[in-house]
Amino acid sequence: MKLLRPLRHALLACLLLLATMAHAEKVMIAAAADLKFAMDEIVVAFRKINPTDEVEVIYGSSGKFHTQIQQGAPYDLFFSADIALARKLVKAGLAASEVKPYAVGRIVLWSASLDASQMTLASLADAKITRIAIANPKHAPYGQRAEEALRASGLWEKVEPKLVYGENIAHTAQFVQTGNAQVGIIALALAVNAELASKGGYGLIPAGLHQPLEQGFVITKHAEGRALARRFADYMGSKPARSVMTRYGFVLPGEVSH
After folding, report:
1. 124 and 194, same structural domain?
2. Residue 1: is its pLDDT beyond 80?
């Protein structure tokens, strides 16, 4: 009988493992590239209290994600830098929740070689600056706001020949990091990350020069009835998650921009 005890214990351990695996879930999130650093931290914190669950985040252009979801991409949650794109999914019957506003983003001037904290949009007209990076306005909300700000400042025609376009706002920042552009108009949420902040300051672009970067998320139809998707959505409204978002420069629902 003593010989059977280890076998019994091993069998019990296997049954417990199988039970845990049976309850484990996975969600895939499509998130705007400006969320890269903030969302990575939020997922780590979420997994500490949900250790058996898996959360995978893909970062990119909100416009492209919107198109992919329309075409059947298996994302469970969609965090859009333009809340209008999330609303379109609801209208099209491709969401399993209402749209939840989660932040308002800001755009800034940032450079790895120049002191952007001393720059304004007018500085971009300087002949010494020959390459300026912005996100592609055709599908990236941050690029659309950059174009709006440049047009409102009367600078678009002057700087358009200098522009290089990133696929999304993170790609835009990479252009500047690698020296392929001298300066870029990027998300504040990226500029305050330690990796970028260590290379110089940033210049905040006045919010009045462009439409608000109101951002929102939905649970997609693909995740309808999935408890983990709902738990993660709820966690985004928690104090720990809001604290991370604030630290990365996002203005949250219920707060006032300064």
Report:
1. yes
2. no
